């Protein structure tokens, strides 16, 4: 059995169609591999960075260990919940339309309003609700929304004594990657 | 410098007021430590499980390493995004009211509708949107919503060849813990 995965390609484009994970690789409409739709290893493979076999084996082992214990885990603490929530929110907003419809604007505003009322950590929710009152969500465009969210995240970073993120770099961190 | 943290307590209740993380420990209105408002180590301390000093030191080192590189990370892949999103959604729904108001019901419905339209992974969003059409969100109560979400999560587990979670146990996994 080979440790190097077989790279199946379509005849016309020479793009890989199945990744090292065994999943079909998903491409965006512009033909580029979709980062949020593939595993990291598959995405790397599809963008021409073929991962090393030991990297694949390590990932596979780690994944199996995680899956085995996943269902018996305790509920997340404030740090795991916070990290998960920011990852979710930044990723969601990164895909917000350039020219949002009234429905898009309404739904994202409702979402943040709901978070200020229902976020599982009560004191976080109260602080966030106050932030919303002082800093209205910018639903006007993709960049506007993400700059607003970056500001909201930095307000929490400051509160927790963490360093602030340079909001001009949000696309690298949450949408396009650093390379 | 001692490796064991100082446990400050209030005079009247003997509850710790500052955790091993240096943060103030947050208690719910019923007087119990709030799981989603504290770090795991602080929560353990407040519930009488004093963590070992080597556990604290390890956590501190890991946290520092994570923080150092956090801002230069690439956007999440589909697995990290999926795990973060489920953690966020289950935690949010776990705190949904027992007797939700019309506003609560409307906001949570809008949230899931938005996910079916805007979730960053397009094929995940399409599948979720179809699931919503076939399985209307149960907004009637805390248990109803969480049983519905557990079913939605299991549909994805089946699709990905993962084992299903026993939905009767959702409170242990996402709200109360296993002990």
Give an overview of the whole structure:
The structure is a homodimer of 179-residue chains. The first copy, chain A, has 179 residues and is mainly alpha-helical. Chain A has helices at residues 40-46, 53-70, 78-94, 102-118, 122-134, 142-159, 170-176. The first copy, chain A, is globular. The two termini of chain A are 33 Å apart. Chains A and B meet through helix 3, helix 4, helix 5 and helix 7 of A and helix 3, helix 4, helix 5 and helix 7 of B.
Shape of chain A: globular
Ends apart, CA distance between termini of chain A: 33 Å
Order of helices and strands of chain A: HHHHHHH
Total beta strand runs of chain A: 0
What is the tally of helical segments of chain A? 7
Mean pLDDT metric of chain A:
83
Pair with the biggest interface? A-B, 56 and 56 residues
- The structural class of chain A is mainly alpha
| Radius of gyration from the alpha-carbon trace of chain A, in angstroms | 20 Å
Instruction: List the uncertain runs of chain A.
Output: 1-8
Largest sheet report of chain A: none
- Oligomeric state, counting identical vs distinct chains: homodimer
- β-strand percent of chain A reads under 5%
Task: Estimate percent helicity of chain A.
Answer: 40-55%
């Amino acid at each position: 059995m080979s440790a190097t995965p077989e790279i199946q390609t379509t005849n016309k484009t020479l793009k890989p169609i199945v990744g090292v994970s065994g999943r079909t690789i998903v491409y965006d409409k512009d033909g580029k591999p979709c980062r949020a739709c593939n595993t990291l290893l598959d995405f790397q493979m599809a963008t021409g960075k073929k991962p090393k076999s030991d990297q694949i084996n390590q990932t596979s082992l780690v994944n199996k260990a995680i899956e085995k214990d996943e269902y018996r885990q305790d509920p997340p603490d404030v740090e795991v919940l916070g990290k998960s929530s920011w990852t979710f929110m930044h990723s969601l907003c990164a895909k917000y339309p350039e020219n949002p419809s009234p429905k898009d604007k309404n739904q994202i505003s409702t979402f943040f309003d709901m978070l200020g009322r229902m976020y599982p950590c009560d004191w976080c929710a109260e602080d966030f609700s106050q932030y919303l009152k002082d800093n209205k969500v910018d639903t006007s465009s993709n960049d506007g929304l993400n700059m607003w969210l970056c500001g909201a995240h930095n307000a929490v970073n400051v509160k927790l004594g963490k360093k602030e993120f340079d909001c001009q770099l949000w696309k690298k961190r949450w949408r396009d990657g650093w390379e």
